[in-house]
Amino acid sequence: MSDGCVYLVGAGPGDPGLMTIRGRDLLRQADAVVYDNLAARRLLDEAPGDAEMIYVGKQAAAHTLKQEQINELLVKLGSEGKQVVRLKGGDPFVFGRGGEEALALVEAGVKFEVVPGITAGIAALAYAGIPVTHRNITSSMALITGHEMPGKAESYLDYEALAGWPGTLGFYMGVKNLPKITASLIAHGKDPATPAALVRWGTTARQETVTGTLETITDVATAAGIKPPALIVVGHVVALREKISWFENRPLFGKKIVVTRARLQASRVTAQLEALGAEVIELPAIRIEAPDDSAPLDQAVSAIQAYDWIIFTSANGVDAFFGAMERAGLDARALAGVKVCVIGPGTAAKLAQFGLRKDAQPKAYKASEITETLAKIDDLNGKKILCPRADIAPKELIHDLEARGAEATDIAAYRTVGETPGQELLDDLFADRGPDWITFTSSSTVTNFVNAVGLDRLQASNAKLASIGPVTSNTIRSFDLTADIEAESHTIPGLIDALLIAQKSQE
Questions:
Q1: N or C: which end of the chain has fewer CB within 10 A?
Q2: Are 502 and 396 contained in the same domain?
């Protein structure tokens, strides 16, 4: 589109998986993203790398920009012909000031579109095990602001009507005014014994829920230290939480876990950890790039029938190899008669995507086991073996193969390059209580992460370190750090199992 357009997009209540497909598609096409404090930061990764990112977050008494300035900014960006995503927590039109922004765009003649989002008043309560309606309890719900505009001459809230409301009451932004809200409802006839709850940071791994009655909830929330952002819910549906609470019961709930894998590989780990309740922070310590010189791999692929075995020690190696196959105009048929060994199930799964099954896979994921496995299948003496690997892969495998009489060709199929997280991200990571776990899936992730964070800060933190295997653990120890857990099965599922075992032992 040549004309500018501002998209008022609801980011949902906090869980990035709850954003609409339409909103995610628009993010991927945006020239500029204007985002607020409650939009999940991971959603920003969906935007193009060259998109202009503008933070306009607002918290109580701490506004980056006033609403009028945000309106002016959206008008300016849209008038410049840009595709602008205004990313707002929850739904733009449910206490999100989206109506004000839309009116400003209309008055300026700037095209706009509204993309609804799941509002926290429904989603956060669902994640707390509190259904907003239940046919045996209530068939209605009211969404109410708990924080009206300062200086307003009179309140728009009719507490007499609210006290007589037969359904669920959901108050947004009302933590500061909780004593006034509860006292006003009781004063206008609401039963003090009515169940009530507060849900903080709903739908995220930071979610915290406290329950009581209309009469006691203020004291309960104060004792628990509940602060914004939080929702207040009043109604008999709150009592159902005792039976159907589900989100906060997951085994890694509330644990802050850092994933240091390359960004393209991190999503699978992140999804599994989040499904177990963890708050995942992706801070890639490495990225995967093409080798400085692809000619050696291209030459090996063109002569692939000369090899007896190919050994893939990572999914990245598989991708790089078949990339070279494509450049040569070849496909899996060119490997007829060539046996294939993979180091683990993840690599086997990647191989299967190209229509091939493994001929060998060691039980343990280390060099000596690979050699032993092959030796049981084939006499390695004189065999030609291709090893497309990382540029920094240790030479132990090659030496073991050569010791068996094999002719091993070690080729740098891809480069592992250090990634440095931004200083702001690192400062945020170690603020407050910091992470509970930092996961490492290779020696290079350890080295690059320590160099980026600083050894002193890592040693001073309370973070525990999780290692995928003995080689990675040795690298951790080389920095005078402790590998608190090591995966028994040196795979991503094995690492996650180790985290689950460690968590259970602490309970």
A1: C
A2: no
Number of domains in the chain: 4
Domain match, 94 and 29 both:
yes
To the nearest 10 degrees (0 to 180), the angle between helices 67-79 and 98-108 is 40
Q: Which residues are catalytic?
A: 36, 58, 173
Write out pLDDT tens, residues 352-397: 999 999 999 998 777 788 999 999 999 999 999 999 999 988 899 9
Owner of token pair 């920095």 = 479
CATH of the domain at 210: 3.30.950.10
Structural contact between residues 277 and 247, judged by C-beta atoms closer than 8 angstroms: yes
With residue 81 as reference, give the H or E element that holds it. Answer: none
Q: Are 74 and 40 within one domain?
A: yes
Judge if 306 and 279 occupy the same domain: no
CB-based burial label for 295 (10 Å; 0-12, 13-18, 19+):
exposed
Helix boundaries (H) for 245-334? 263-275, 295-302, 315-327
pTM, two decimal places: 0.80
- The Cα 212–Cα 232 span in angstroms is 11
Tokens of 452: 């980026």
Residue with tokens 């050994």: 311
